[in-house]
Design brief:
The chain is of the alpha/beta class. The chain folds into 2 domains: 41-178 and 253-425, Alkaline Phosphatase, subunit A (3-Layer(aba) Sandwich), CATH 3.40.720.10; 183-246. Helix content is 35%, strand content 9%. A 7-stranded mixed beta sheet has the order 4-5-1-6-7-2-8, covered by helices on one side. A two-stranded parallel sheet has the order 3-9. Helix 5 (172-180) packs parallel to helix 8, helix 8 packs across helix 9 and helix 8 runs parallel beside helix 11 (316-341). It is globular.
């Protein structure tokens, strides 16, 4: 029988027993399922404006497993054996704190291209998504929080191969509908819409090819980037076509549609719950979430802005900063427990299969050294329950990103300005 002209979706629908099955609760205990490896997940949670350095970082003299959890992370006391804190990581090219999380997952030099004031490269989550997202409905999901003024999504953490931001969602309601609401448009009409989109794309591609002759090298490079963008759109359309007739799954525990006005502490908590639900139905395996600091501190009773808070000395601003740290630690504890409580068909939990990074590109105020970095989850094979202080105070943060890629099974030799994986993370 020939299969080369059949789509993956139709091939799977043929009922062939030669392919590994996805994790199905009803097939628990079947040999083919028990022998399979649970899919890995990656989650990146970015704290805007850094942390309160006096109360968030452990004492650098206390390393390894025997260290005192600092006040700013006290809500994680029950999970101390599940977390790893690393100090002395930073990005080589970070020189402007106001860019915040923009380069957190890339480590890029924004001045790398002569004559341009901004340049970025692919983010580690998108490198992972190219592998982890191949078989899920959504290759990755980006959650951007809201801008300081509350209108529209904030900056994305995720950047594609051309160094362009990957768009995201800014509210729990938007995420809920993206993950779990089926499109009521008739199938034939949706198929026609995608067909028309392909037709437009083909026309644009032909027009672009017709102008290639006689271009300067600079223009050729720009055109190559344009072609790559078109290829990405083609890939996205192909994936939409593949999943067009597959209904979205709902998790076992019934979900209620989030309120449209949910903000701050409860907003983050709901985002975490929806992320766990998405992992339960394997809708995606890669998340980035730029946590909304402004709405969070307002929900805690603060009347100052997050930027004003970040320039703390003593008094109210530092108090708000410390409250922010503890609230985020509480929410992370909630997320960890939800992942631990969600069991997969092989008996492991979602926590066991997830690599979670909680951190920031900024230490505090405008300091860009010693980026606050907390790791949890078993997905990358890291040994947790320890406090690591890297010997080199300028150890590339990209060494961690490389370690994570290797840990989840992606054979990358380098990422960004990495000099090698962090051996202390592995058993």
């Amino acid at each position: 029988m020939r299969f080369q002209n059949r789509s993956r979706r139709s091939f799977l629908a043929s009922g062939s027993t030669l392919l590994g099955l996805p994790y199905l609760e009803s097939l628990r205990g079947a040999p083919s399922v028990a022998a399979a490896t649970a899919p890995r997940r990656m989650v990146y949670l970015a704290m805007g404006f850094g942390v309160t350095k006096q109360t968030w970082f452990p004492d650098k003299e206390q390393t390894g497993h025997d260290y005192d959890l600092p006040e700013g992370l006290a809500p994680l006391a029950d999970y101390q054996d599940d977390i790893t804190i690393i100090q002395n990581l930073q990005h080589k090219y970070s020189n402007e704190a106001h860019w915040g999380s923009t380069m957190w997952l890339t480590g890029a030099n924004r001045y790398a291209v002569p004559g341009q004031s901004f340049h970025n490269t692919v983010s580690v989550d998108q490198v992972a998504a190219e592998t982890l997202g191949a078989d899920t409905r959504f290759t990755s999901v980006q959650l951007n929080g809201r801008k300081a003024n509350g209108h529209g999504p904030g900056l994305s953490l995720a950047w594609n191969r051309q160094g362009k931001p990957v768009s995201g969602l800014d509210t729990p309601l938007a995420l809920y509908h993206r993950l779990f609401s089926d499109d009521k448009t008739p199938l034939a009409q949706r198929q026609q819409m995608l067909l028309e989109e392909r037709s437009v794309l083909d026309t644009v591609l032909e027009d672009a090819k017709s102008v290639q002759v006689g271009l300067t090298q600079t223009d050729k490079d720009k055109l190559d980037e344009y072609f790559q963008s078109i290829r990405e759109i083609e890939t996205r359309i192909g994936k939409e076509e593949e999943w067009l007739d597959v209904p979205k799954k709902m998790p076992k525990q019934k979900l209620k549609e989030p309120g449209a006005k949910l903000t701050g502490y409860e907003e983050i908590k709901m985002m975490y719950d929806l992320m766990v639900a998405a992992m339960e139905v394997d809708a995606t395996r890669v998340f980035t979430y730029r946590l909304p600091t402004d709405t969070l501190i307002r929900s805690l009773g603060a009347t100052i802005s997050s930027h004003n808070m970040s320039h703390y000395t003593e008094g109210e601003r530092r108090q708000v900063s410390e409250q922010r740290d503890q609230a985020l630690a509480e929410l992370l504890a909630h997320f960890i427990q939800k992942l631990k409580d969600s069991k997969q068909a092989d008996g492991t939990s979602l926590y066991d299969a997830s690599s979670i990074t909680f951190g920031s590109n900024i230490q505090s105020i405008h300091h860009l050294n010693n980026c606050p970095t907390l790791l949890t989850g078993g997905g990358a094979g890291f040994r947790h329950g320890q406090h690591l202080v890297m010997k080199d105070p300028k150890t590339p943060l990209c060494n961690l990103w490389l370690s994570q890629l290797n840990g989840i099974g992606i054979n990358a030799e380098k990422f960004g300005d990495s000099t090698g994986p962090i051996g202390e993370l592995f058993s």
